[in-house]
Amino acid sequence: MSQPGSRFYNCRFEGNKSTETSLGYGNATGAIGLDGDLSNSFFQDKYLIIDGCEFVRNEGRTEAGAINARHNTKIYNSLFYQNSGENGGSGAVSTMARRAGDGGANFETKLIIANCTFVENRCDFGPGAVFAYGGNGAIIFNSIFQNNFRTNSFSSGPEENYFQGSEIKIDYSSFDFDVDINRESNAAQIGSNVILADPAFVDTTKEDFNLSIASILIGRGTSSFEGESAPLNDITGSQRPNPSGTNPDIGAYENSLGESPYPKQTTGLIVESIGSGISI
């Protein structure tokens, strides 16, 4: 696609593969490749909107496994599962300034990701989940990242939750390990509400990424972050937050509970040995 402003609602992109290797026009992307329009300033304030979509086992080369949007992009309530990128880009989502360096002209892309779920995406020589390029950076909140890997021959092993880009801001999100941001700018920020925990999905073997009632992520999201509002419905169309008046959940699927009935994780324990026993 060559013009920004496209919208995708409740779509499923599965098993798409790009054989193109040329970098720069969105055509080396597994599912959606958007090439911006330098010649028309009318598109500067337009956004690619993706809401309630599923991207499953798509394969891209040099750009992204699922989406490469070289323009302003908003992604809500979407699932990214087992997408892969080869030889750079990202495993799931990339956004790059439109043909940066072409005569010095480019638009500063803006990426917003809210209430999305990223599971088992990978990329060779690039981040497994998100690569955001452009002076406006990326705003990511209420989202789950689990088992997303960056692999390359120069590291001792795969790197999980590796993000690349400038001025990335992440908060109210879940990771199974610590977050690793390639900080091209000192402005990259990780908020204090990031949770390091297993999201406790219902059944990943059946690709059921609903939160089980044991999930710590129920009611742990926010209604807004950095001036951006969370979506009012989840990937299935159910009301968010649910019940009304509570905080939204983290991830693409909203649980019917306002909080988990399971006990919260215990923190700050100090264990001391006292004779033949212990003191907690």
Verbal overview:
A seven-stranded parallel β-sheet has the order 1-4-8-12-16-21-24, with no helix packed on it. A seven-stranded parallel β-sheet has the order 2-5-9-13-17-22-25, with no helix packed on it. The protein is mostly beta strands and 280 residues long. The chain has no helices and 31 strands. Residues 99-105 have low confidence and may be disordered.
Number of domains: 1
Uncertain segments are 99-105
- Please describe the biggest sheet, giving its number of strands, its sense, and whether it closes into a barrel: 7 strands, parallel
Q: Can you give the mean pLDDT?
A: 79
Q: Quaternary state, please?
A: single chain
Distance between the termini: 61 Å
Q: How do the strands of the widest beta sheet line up side by side?
A: 1-4-8-12-16-21-24
- Overall shape: it is globular
Radius of gyration: 19 Å
Indicate the proportion of strand residues. Answer: 25-35%
- Residues in helix, %: under 10%
| Total helical segments | 0
Which structural class should the secondary elements be placed in? mainly beta
What's the number of extended β-strand segments? 31
Summarize the structure.
The chain has no helices and 31 strands. By secondary structure, it is an all-beta fold.
Keywords:
mainly beta; seven-stranded parallel β-sheet; globular
Layout: helices, strands, pairs:
Layout: E1 7-9, E2 12-14, E3 32-34, E4 48-51, E5 54-56, E6 59-61, E7 67-69, E8 73-76, E9 79-81, E10 84-86, E11 93-95, E12 111-114, E13 117-119, E14 122-124, E15 130-132, E16 138-141, E17 144-146, E18 149-151, E19 159-160, E20 162-165, E21 168-171, E22 174-175, E23 180-183, E24 189-190, E25 195-196, E26 201-203, E27 208-211, E28 224-225, E29 228-229, E30 272-274, E31 277-279
Parallel strand pairs: 1-4, 2-5, 3-7, 4-8, 5-9, 6-10, 7-11, 8-12, 9-13, 10-14, 11-15, 12-16, 13-17, 14-18, 15-20, 16-21, 17-22, 20-23, 21-24, 22-25
Antiparallel strand pairs: 18-19, 26-27, 28-29, 30-31
